[in-house]
Each structure stands twice: as C-alpha cells, then as structure tokens.
Design goal:
The complex is a heterodimer of chains A (about 400) and B (about 140). With about 400 residues, chain A is α+β, with helices and mostly antiparallel strands. In chain A, about 45% of the residues lie in helices and about 15% in strands. In chain A, helix 2 runs antiparallel to helix 3, helix 5 packs antiparallel against helix 6 and helix 7 crosses helix 15. The mean pLDDT of chain B is about 90. The chains are: A alpha+beta (about 400), B alpha/beta (about 140).
Chain lengths: ~400, ~140
C-alpha cells in the first residue's frame, strides 16, 4: 500500500474550533483516520466542583454555544435526580419548549453547513436565514439569542407570558412553511441524492460498538431517544415521533434531521398551546441537596448529553462529570471514513455534526517525497457535486 | 423493570453494595468480575455505555461506568474501587466495548489509573504536550 498522511488542523485562522486529525490516504481513498483531541480542553468539570449548584448551571451553559440549553437541562436533571425533586407542570412545558427550539436552530445550522460543503450555497443561505426567526423566539422568551439562562434546580428561571404566545406561534408557523420548502428541495433534488446516498455509511453494528448517540445512531437504525426512554420534562405529555432511518449514510442523516425539525415544531406548538392553559408556579423552592449521586441526561440536537453529579450535602458538587454527544460520535469516523474517496471525507466528518465547522479550509499534505503541498477538502467536495450535476443535467 | 430483575438474578453474587433508586442501579463489582458483568450488560441486555466517571475518594479511587438501557430508561452503574492510591490498576473494558476507548484513556491521564488490556494506552488530551506532563492531572494526593 502506498499511503500518504493528510493532517487536518489543529490551528488555522479559518478554523472555528481547534481540532486535529490525520487522514491516511491511498491514492484517492481514505484508508485510515487518527483523531487527536485536547486542543481546547477547558476544565469545566474541575471548575464546576468549585461552584455552587446554581453557578454550575450557568457554567455548563457555556460549554457549547449551539446547544446552550441542553447542558443546563441535563445538569439540573442530575441535581434533581439526587433527591428525586419534582418540578411544576408549567416548568416542564417551558423546558421542553426551549430544548426543542434549540434542536430546530441547531439542525438548521447543520443543514446550512452541509449544503455549503457539497456546493449548495443556496441551501446554506436559506437554512441560516430561516434560523434567524428561531433565535428571535429565544430573544422573546428569555431576552437572549444565546445562553438563555432559563434553567433552575426545581424549575425554570423565566416564565413565558401569555401575551407572547400568539406571536411565538405565528413565527413557528412561518418556520414550519419554510422547513417544508427546504424538505421538499432536499427530497426532490436528484443531485443531492446522488451526492449523498451511500456516502460515509456507519453500519448498525459499528454504531452499537462505538456507543454512538443521537441522529448519528438513529440514522443507522438504532431507535434510541432519551425523550422517549426516560420520563423527562413534558415529553410524555406531547405527541411526537422518533425518526429512525436504516442506511447510516449522509443522506439518511440529512433526511432524519429535516424530519426531526418538523417533529420539534410539532412539539413546540403543543407546548405553547398548553402554556395558555396550564397555570401555576414555574419553580419549586429547593433549599438544599442531600448527600448522594444523580444522573441527568437530555437528548440534545447531536445526541445524549450526560451529566453525573455527586454531592456531600454542601451547596456544591464534589464530582461533576460531563459527557457531550460529540465525545462518542467523533470516534465513529474510524468506521465511517475508511474506504471512502477523499472528496467525501469532509461531508462524512461533518455528518455527525461534530461541533467544528471549517476543517476543510487549508491543510498540508506530504507527498511521497515528503514535499509539502496544499489541498482543499471543500474544493474537492464541491467539485464532486458539480460533476454529478453535469452527469444528471448534461450541462 | 423486568430487565433489572433479570440482571440481579444473573449477577446477584457478583455485585455488592447495591443502591436502587428510581431507574438507577448503582452497585460495586470486583475488578475480577467486571468483564462478566459488562458482557452481560452490553451483549445480553443490549445496554449502551454512556460514559464512565472516576472520582477520588478517601478510601480510594472509584471508577463508575454508566450503562443506559435505552428500551426502559434504566441506568446500570457498576463501580470498581481501587484502594491502592499509589498504583491504581483495573481491567479495561475497551476490548469488549470499543466506545470505552477514549474515556478510559482520559481517566488514565487524569487519575493515573492503569487499564490492563487497553488496546491503546496513550494520552488522549495532552499527548505531545510541550510541558511533558507526566503526572496524573487531577489526582491530589499523589506523593
């Protein structure tokens, strides 16, 4: 085998986050991948153990800028699990509403990036354009477009006022229409199908063995969703379907996210309708947490967010473990990237929504003579789409 | 909770100090029995490994694995306690579950635990660190 190694990362002005992996290629084919993490380890677990429970919620909110309500929800679930604390019904609906709005804007963000990576810049611009109203909904609900500060142990921090609900439902209707349009565009386009079907397949057995979560596992036929398996928030009180696909390729992950977004809109609408009827407090007054341990989790847009809290009866955790979904989804590259053409490497790695975006911009390749040369994964990916487009439309 | 009952019947003699609370089953397991318990959870019951947590306690270092049974929402958490603080050693479960590779490497790096049988026992987060970190990063009582 005559292989070359392509290092991607770790630092480049165009990278949004620091990541580093080596693609081993034989000609045009990827034959191996070696991941190297730790470039942005921020010590959140250690810091959280120096903070009070309430401060920890604000801290974990800042782990991720995109799923900035998933971590706080999982964190309060873990703390509440220590003492089996019940939360008011109104707070359950508000938590569910915030979590699902986050799923909508996260999936739209991913769709936009995926479109850009395969040369569909119109999809990118549309998806991000229609993500804006969702962020406006967050601003109406919490006052912030990001880092909402909504979660509290025992409930939520802010109520959704009755006079805001009609406006929120109007925005939701508009987003649903636009999502249906995007879904139609993605479904009907033969180029997208040809470009993504059969690309970067993660087999069912590999997804099980790597313990993958979220859309990454559900696209491979694993029907696991925390919202159904555990009685959290208001998910047992609303009607929705868990979307599961079978092929495990990038196309299935795209379709799954589109359909999940429509399900999320359905959940949000039910929550808003219920908030018109359900009255009462939004938080239970929790004065202290007993010694013990608790597990909290939430189905974030990328998959299960896991928090474990151990307490000694004081007002802070003695151990706080956080596991984000990308931590278990990124190692699946070792199964999904091997054997694919290098032009598909970018969209395959992006398909798990790994929380780093611009890996494709510029990287250094050593050829057989150890001479450095530049290659652009984005360019390769988009060129492949263009070739398929010409084959189909003949121009 | 039929699965929980089945688990307790099959593994009853291998688990100790059980805490059962509202969908979470925490229990201690000897290092020698860990593989058998993990195989039962992963292969027979179809549990998924969420992650593992290492904690430094007064009596030693604890490693708590978190297995999620997604069909029922039940959590099974086998706990291995290592009392030798100078040289904590336990069996790796990565040969059984590939998804355990990163978290075991991370625990080895942070708490100095040696995982016997780990296929790739190298640092996860601070490999090639310019300061050449050679001590467990979060272990406070290392002499």
């Amino acid at each position: 085998m005559n292989s070359n190694t392509i290092p991607v990362g770790p630092f480049h002005p165009l990278l949004e986050e620091a990541e580093y992996f080596n693609l081993v290629v034989d000609g045009e084919t990827v034959v191996g991948i070696d991941l190297d993490i730790g470039w942005m380890h921020r010590g959140h677990e250690f810091i959280s153990e120096q903070k009070t429970f309430t401060q920890s919620i604000y801290l974990v909110e800042r782990i991720c800028g995109i799923c900035s309500s998933s971590h706080p929800i999982a964190c309060v679930h873990a703390i509440e699990d220590v003492d089996n604390i019940e939360i008011p019904l109104r707070a359950r609906y508000i938590r569910t509403l915030v979590g699902e709005l986050e799923r909508i804007h996260s999936h739209l963000l991913w769709m936009g990036l995926a479109g850009h990576f395969i040369g569909y810049d119109t999809l990118w611009m549309w998806a991000w354009k229609y993500r804006e109203p969702v962020l406006q909904m967050f601003e109406i609900i919490s006052g912030n477009r990001n880092h909402y500060g909504m979660m509290r142990v025992g409930g939520v921090a802010k109520d959704v006022d009755a006079e805001k609900i009609a406006g929120l439902l109007e925005i939701l209707d508009m987003v649903e229409k636009k999502m249906a349009m995007l879904a139609g565009a993605a479904n009907d386009d033969p180029v997208i199908k040809s470009r993504l079907k059969g690309v970067g397949v993660l087999k069912h057995d590999d997804a099980v063995n790597f313990c993958a979560v979220g859309p990454t596992s559900r696209a491979s036929g694993i029907p696991a969703d925390i919202r159904k398996s555990e009685d959290i928030d208001a998910y047992s009180l609303v009607d929705f379907n868990v979307i599961v696909m079978q092929n495990g390729d990038v196309y299935d992950k795209l379709v799954l996210r589109v359909l999940e977004t429509l399900e999320s809109i359905k959940i949000c609408r039910q929550c808003l309708q219920k908030l018109k009827e359900v009255k009462g407090p939004i938080v239970n007054n929790v004065k202290e947490i007993s010694p013990g341990e608790g597990i909290g989790r939430y189905e974030a847009p990328r998959g299960e967010v896991f928090h474990y809290v151990r307490t000694d009866g004081s007002n802070r955790p003695i151990r706080h473990k956080v596991r984000a979904p990308s931590y278990v989804n990124i190692p699946t590259y070792a199964a999904s990237c091997v054997g694919i053409p290098i032009a598909d490497a970018l969209i395959t790695t992006a398909a798990v929504d790994p929380c780093y975006c611009c890996t494709e911009r510029s990287l250094r390749v050593y050829d057989n003579k150890r001479e450095p040369m530049q290659i652009d994964l984005l360019k390769l990916s988009r060129e492949k789409t263009e070739r398929i487009r010409r084959d189909i439309y003949g121009r | 909770m039929a699965d929980c009952k089945e688990f307790l019947e099959a593994m009853g003699n291998k688990i100790h100090k059980t805490i059962d609370k509202k969908g979470r089953l925490y229990f201690e397991v000897n290092n020698d029995d860990l593989h058998e318990v993990v195989k039962f959870l992963f292969h027979k019951m179809g549990c998924r490994l969420s992650t593992a947590t290492a904690t430094e306690m007064y009596h030693g270092i604890e490693v708590l694995y978190h297995f999620s049974h997604d069909a029922t929402g039940q959590y099974y958490c086998p706990r291995v306690v290592m009392t030798n603080l100078q040289k904590p050693v336990m069996n790796s479960i990565t040969p059984i579950i590939r998804g355990a590779e990163w978290i075991e490497r991370e625990m080895a790096e942070f708490w100095g635990i040696e995982f016997i049988g780990h296929p790739r026992p190298e640092r996860l987060l601070s490999k090639d660190h310019p300061q050449g970190l050679d001590k467990p990063l979060r272990f406070r009582r290392m002499s």
